[in-house]
Amino acid sequence: MNKKIDTLEFELKLTNEISKKVYFQRTNQNKEFEFKDLVDGIYKLQVLNEDYKQNIFEIKFSQKLNQIFYVEKLCKYRENKSKVCPNCKSDKKVVPIFYGLTTGKFMKQNRNKYHFEGCEISNCDPSWYCKKDKLEF
Fold first, then answer.
1. pLDDT digits over 76-125, tens only?
2. Could you tell me the sign of the dihedral formed by the alpha carbons of 59, 54, 68, 1, in that order?
3. What is the rounded distance in angstroms from the CA atom of residue 2 to the CA atom of residue 68?
């Protein structure tokens, strides 16, 4: 079975769901990996790297299999949709985080309404800021 992962190098764990036999492998510099001498069956492929550990794939394997997997980095901010601060358990001093280019005048006029964070935005940024705890979440 040959697979290609479209991102960084990873430690991988492959488990046969029936026999519970476990195989370990690491992707190479070309983002490819190979498990040899597998029997037909259903397998669970897990990425063992901490930031990617929620990437688990079920594979129905028979004969030779080539497949591309797209893994996604875990973002701790995506799971929290609430504006309640995880430290003080209140939303009284919580404001949205404002990302992007703005003027000094706008920032001064809205300093109590927003927490300003700058222009660089990733796909994993916090949405809220607690003024009491000085915490982004």
1. 787 777 899 999 999 999 999 999 999 999 999 999 999 999 888 887 89
2. negative
3. 9
Task: Compute the distance between CA of residue 130 and CA of residue 137 in angstroms, rounded to an integer.
Answer: 8
**Rounded CA separation 115/137 (Å):** 12
The domain of 93 spans 76-137
d(CA 97, CA 93): 13
| Full 3-state SS string of 78-124 | CCCCCCCCCCCCCCCCEEEEEECCCCHHHHHHCCCCCEEEECCCCCC
Distances (CA, A) of 97 to 45, 79, 113: 37, 16, 9
Where a domain ends, among 69, 91, 108?
Answer: 69
What is each CA distance from 52 to 73, 88, 110, 132, in whole angstroms? 5, 29, 37, 32
Same domain for 36 and 82, yes or no, is no
pTM for the full predicted model: 0.52
